[in-house]
Fold:
Amino acid sequence: MMPFSYFVPDYKVKGTIASMDFAVLNQAGIEGVVLDVDNTITRLGSLELDDSVTKVVKQITQEYPCCLLSNYTPLVRRMREITLDIPIVDTNFKKPLISSYREACKLLHLKPKNIAMIGNGIITDIFGANLAGLYTIKVQPLGYNSKMMKMIGNII
Structure:
């Protein structure tokens, strides 16, 4: 893989995770899913699923072994795990370090090539997961507060 290609997702969703076509997971041979939290399934800093993604996250967790990967402190991560009822990777390693994704693979008991990382961050989610060998899916972030930020998000 060329260095720049680590920043390119395997699949790009034009909208948020709520608009994702999940047939892509089956087509890619995905057996498990790692979800980013902030701005992917919750609004920044929230402990609750965003209303627009509740159905989609339930569908993912019913069809695939799933876990959360977040750079928040252990206490906040634990609160989210309880609130969202999805196991969270408990590691001191932060995204985009490969070690954080290896911990997710261990938690799911799957090989990296059989796991999809779904997130909104090019560096923290896509770059790190590509380095670790996961299938990567870039979604648009939830909760943009300005037209400029939305425009930047659409470009990347």
In short: The two ends are 20 Å apart (CA to CA). The CA atoms of residues 49 and 134 lie 24 Å apart. The longest strand covers residues 32-36. The chain has one domain: 3-155.
